[in-house]
Amino acid sequence: MMKGDFPVGEFAGRKTPFYFYDLPLLERTLDAVRSAIGNRPLWQVHYAVKANANPEILRRIAAAGFGADCVSGGEVRMAYEAGFAPSAIVYAGVGKSDDEITYALELGIGRFNVESSAELLVIEEIAAKLGKVAPVSFRVNPDIGAHTHANITTGLAENKFGIFHEALPEVIRLAQGCPHIAYKGLHFHIGSQILDMSDFVALCNRINDLTARLERLRLPVGDLNVGGGLGINYEHPNHLPIADFKAYFDTFKRHLHLRPGQALHFELGRSLVAPCGTLICRVLYVKQGTTRQFAIVDGSMTELIRPALYHAYHRIENLTSNEPEQLYDVVGPVCESSDVFAKGVSLDACRRGDFIAIRSAGAYGESMASTYNGRPLPGAFFFE
Ligand SMILES: *Cc1c(COP(=O)(O)O)cnc(C)c1O
Questions:
Q1: Ligand 1, pocket residues at CB < 6 Å
Q2: If I label 33, which of 62, 174, 183, 244 is the partner at 20 to 30 A Cα–Cα?
């Protein structure tokens, strides 16, 4: 959606800041995923709920036939309530509590992505008590670095996630000895906002090696889940609003040696929802500093923490003004020096009351919102 397409007339009287969700773009994105996969019934995408757990967004993604990838019992519940079938819900996380495991077992979720042998034994014990069999995949730490921000790599040996790949034969044998565990496959996830397909090629090569090793040991591999992590273009939300799903799926088609009948699962989060979300706020004050000009807006790091947390870039537009551009530091009201959306950006001249759009904020925006400084959680506007 270009600047002029935002329905600014409908924003008047709404409490800012709020999230604006472009639902037609979400639908086009989900269509693009389906067409990039093509006719491969064994390939399935589970949406990573943590990227955006807004109930309306979840409902749309469930209705489009995707599964859900959850990282807590709360997310499993939100996914179930939004209409995802329990069998289409997978659950990862290094620290699943007994209550969370019990809830997920009782609901009958499709898969536990297990991250340690200690966790496996706890699931076995709880499943035995409930008289259930838990479907389990092992999350493998493939020891692969992705070319992305250090805080969002997850597949290195030094990260807390997964079972180190060399320990895998041992834990598969352990699972085979557990009567209330059904071993189903392997799970991986190497990081987020990955745009360099060679990172996914490295993952495919690692999986191919691991598969060959397990087969030599006559151990089952089962199905494969390669996680998520596909990045989007934050610089050009108007011209490149849909992630390059074709390049992504083609990478796995070309480099992953699947066995006949072997299912392949993906867990895309950011790439499905980031582009359709925009944080809308208003200019409170324009302030001249000694060396810089500030546009102080009513949105902050409590609605969108990515710039403060990762120095993430979001394109910013003034939806109200068409006056000649000036340079601004766009900052929020929260009492933290890191409460800055951008420094030295060029915006159409700002005045008090102008609507400001912070683009590509549909992923890790609303889902990470907090009430720090006593701020209310942001509302949502669904553009149909
Ligand atoms: C966060 C996460 C994802 C999704 O990552 P994106 O970069 O948003 O695609 C997928 N799988 C797991 C296990 C995750 O923790």
A1: 48, 50-51, 69, 71, 92, 189, 192, 227-230, 267-271
A2: 183
Closest atom of ligand 1 to CA, residue 92: 13
pTM score above 0.85: yes
pLDDT digits (tens, 9 = 90+) for 275-293: 999 999 999 999 998 999 9
Residue 269 CA: nearest ligand 1 atom is: 8
Q: Could you tell me the CATH superfamily of domain 3-18+275-383?
A: Lyase, Ornithine Decarboxylase; Chain A, domain 1 (2.40.37.10)
- Kindly list the domain boundaries of the chain, sorted by start residue: 3-18+275-383, 40-268
Distance 141 CA to ligand 1 centre (A): 14
Contact 55, 34 (CB under 8 A): no
Give the integer Cα–Cα distance in Å for 316 and 342. 8
- With a pLDDT cut of 90, the percent of the chain lying above it is 92
In degrees, rounded to 5, the angle at the alpha carbon of residue 224 between the alpha carbons of residues 115 and 209 is 90
For residue 375 the two structure tokens come to 């701020």
The strand pair at 316-318 and 340-348 is best described as unpaired
Q: Tokens for 310?
A: 């990762």
Greatest alpha-carbon pair distance for the chain in Å reads 71
> Counting every residue, how long is the chain?
384
Q: Say if residue 160's pLDDT is above 80.
A: no
Show Cβ contacts of residue 198 under 8 Å, excluding neighbours closer than 6 positions.
none
